Model the fold of this input.
Amino acid sequence: MNISTELEQDIWHDLQDPGSYEWWYFDAEDEAQGISLVCIWFAGFAFSPYYMQHYLDWQQKSRPDAPKALDYAGFSFQLYEQGKETLNFIKEGPAPLFESSGTDIAVTFDNNRFYYDKAQNAYILEIDFDYPARRQKVSARLRFSSLKRYSYSKNDTNNNGHVPRHEWLLTVPRAGVDGTILLDDTLKKRTRTIAFNARGYHDHNLGAMPVHEYIEKWYWGRAYSDRYDLIYYVIYFRNNGYRPLALCMLHDNEREEFMVHDHLDVQESAYTKGLFAPLHSRSLRFTRDDLSIEIQQKNVLDTGPFYLRFGSRISFHLNGEHSGDLSGISEFLKPGRLQSRILRFFTRSRIWREGERSVMYDRYNFLKTYFNWFKR
Done:
């Protein structure tokens, strides 16, 4: 797992290896309104049950054609209000729905696009999708203006650096986000407009082999206060002989100092799991020399067989002094769970696959639509 902050690496890499993946992640929180969102573009949806099934069938030689990443491109959009899910849209489909030059920082899936505007030093997100299963239509235009950039790189030294290609590209650790979101109820013929002003974040992940074959579990989070920006990243590898990657990036906004603490000692506690959610820690502690970080995963925003998203609270001590309390977002991934045929079956309830009919998807969204209607 290599890490880079180079802006020019934010392009599409057109990975051809079976099971390879690439995704561009944007999230933002408008704390004044209690609204947060996540937008992700995929060139190879690493957590697709359809992609996983194709890969496993090919690996077991029951299917001759190797899976190609762009046959499982995708886009997802999640919206949360007051700590609860308002909208959770995931669509994947074949290569014709995906477009990128591979030279410019710009990606399109279906009618959803982002691009980097050099003059504004900002990413422009243009969102436009129908969600017929929930009788909704969403459109938005958001600007992620980069407020901070870091300069940092790290190469994985496990196995003397001879490791599979997996990269984390951190291009925008903190952004100012503004724009407008339109939510159309196509059944009741009414539109809700949200003026959005938020703090945001953007990164980019890619890998040349299926993520479940390399990574056992994965914690990530970012949190802000007026004084500090904090990003943490912890990966445990499937190969027990590899040292886990654990680092914290800390920016002191008052002193304009950027610090990276790696080779952290990690302690997990307060383990829990749900009916489908994987076993995970709700409390993390990182220590290294003069740094101590306590992370509490508070309210669950999203949950699934291999993934959880939390609103989190982070407290840290630096040089023996309590330096800050921050709030933010944390995630947990357990990618190997998608090897389970049963869990892949249930995961299909969340994903609209272009050209595929899924009874699980239809029934899940039918129940969610009417449950939400009764709540109102």
Residues 212-338 form a domain with the AttH-like fold fold (CATH 2.40.370.10). Helices lie at 49-59, 211-214, 341-347, 359-375.
